[in-house]
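Usage

Read records sequentially. Each one opens with the input sequence:
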Amino acid sequence: MVKASAVASAVACLVVLAACGGGGGPADEDEGRGEETARSAFEEGFEAGQEVLEEHGKGAAVRETVWGGCEKRAEEAGTGYPDDWVRGCRKGVQTFSGG
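and closes with the structure output:
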């Protein structure tokens, strides 16, 4: 009887270890790419916001942040990370380049 329970415990441990250890590499790579994509969406939004600020002046910050201009531009851009894009856009229209 002791041998059967020891074997069952050993098999259960192997099953758990196999389930936990398999396929860990690709998930880590996907997470890394996701962070880069969110970052690139923020950077694209920031650049778009800077362009709007340069073309339309200080009033652009109000139009883009309060009246939803950045949200509309994020939809038009079709980004997979619209929240990051919008944050970048809002930051862009509020950041003067000093030039």
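Summary fields computed downstream for this record:
- Residues 10-31 have pLDDT under 50 and may be disordered.
- The chain is about 85% helix and 0% strand.
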